[in-house]
Amino acid sequence: MENNTSTMISWEKKIMINELLTQAKEEVKQLQMHLAPSAITCGKLSITKIVSALEIPLFMLNEIKPEGRGDQPQMMTGLTPITQTESPLRTVSRSPRSDYESDLMANYFKKRKILPKWTETVRVCELTGFEGPPDDGYSWRKYGQKDILNTNYPRAYYRCTHRNVQMCFAKKLVQRTDKDPSLFCITYWGKHTCIQASHLQPGEQHKKHDPKHNKSKETLISFQTSCHVRAEDLATRVVPSFSLPSTSKPASCLEKENDNNNNIFSSLTPDNHFSGSLLSPPLVSAEVYYPYYLPTYGHTVQTSDYDVNELISAAALDVCPPFQDLDSDIPIQSGFSYLFDTPRFFD
DNA sequence: CTTATTTGACCCTA
DNA sequence: TAGGGTCAAATAAG
């Protein structure tokens, strides 16, 4: 029998690489749409070439089918409809784990590490009697709760409701902060790839799912965001970080207004980056730090050491208990290596 | 009856 | 080995 370990590592990696490449391609295309024609071809760089370069590994990935197990999902990004009745990550029986299951678990943990990660801090108005974190528009299923050392409140673990059916591996951790019980620190892993993600548009998402939204202003929360995305251990990467001017929001409860942040990838538009005047009000009003990743173009990574912690807002650092460092140890070789020096590129 | 949550046990990583 | 993350049976809710 063929070695299942290598097989599973292979398709898991394919899924993740496909996910990352697809996202990168989409963002580069968005970038292209918003850039002036003169900026698109600047010196050695051509965005069109980047998109084309991304197409190659994507095509290669999509051509490769998982070997050995025909029931395994092939794509994670909706390129291929997926129906699955049983989670591939573990069978019903708990013990003893087969080698296959152990491999799955090992790869599952590794895969989680390379998922993009960002953190939000959300203040909830106590007047609403809101016990949990605000609805962000997606369907989450709580799968665990854990008391964390040196914290007063347990940490709750959520995953996408459609994980098994649609292979949507988005997850989030919710923890109430010790310093301010009305403040929740929410850490997201992975982008939603389920149907709901594509159907929900910014501004609609929490309206659709949050019944409290129908109560008009009853659900009032102030929303301060500190977003932090990580996609570690890409063979190549660039992290053009930017910060938006922080405006003084009233401390009183405000309706959650940065729905655009529900999908961090789609929310980061070139407009946000290059033209402050084009910023949508929600983004302007929120204090946002978006370290972001894209395939890189050129020779070497300009910022030798991405100390991503620096990119988290001081506020978030102040209130959020430290989460486990999820740096990946999976080397991903995409077969091409590009880097563009962001500041120079956008000159 | 179906779906979601709770919670103790198991497993992995540092 | 401790702490954190996940599973899945039991339970609750709709």
List keywords for this structure.
alpha+beta, globular, WRKY domain-containing protein, nucleus, 31% helix, DNA-binding, disordered N terminus, single chain, 347 residues, two-stranded antiparallel sheet, six-stranded antiparallel sheet, disordered C terminus
| N-to-C series of helices and strands | HHEEHHEEEHEEHHEHHHHH
Shape: globular
Strand adjacency order, main sheet: 4-5-6-7-3-8
Number of helical elements? 12
Structure description:
The protein has a domain of 236 residues. α1 packs antiparallel against α3. The N and C termini lie far apart (56 Å). The radius of gyration is 21 Å and the shape is globular. The strands form 2 sheets. Strands 4-5-6-7-3-8 form a 6-stranded antiparallel beta sheet. With 347 residues, the chain is of the alpha+beta class. It binds a DNA duplex (14 and 14 nucleotides) through α4, β4 and β5. Keywords: DNA-binding, Nucleus, Transcription, Transcription regulation.
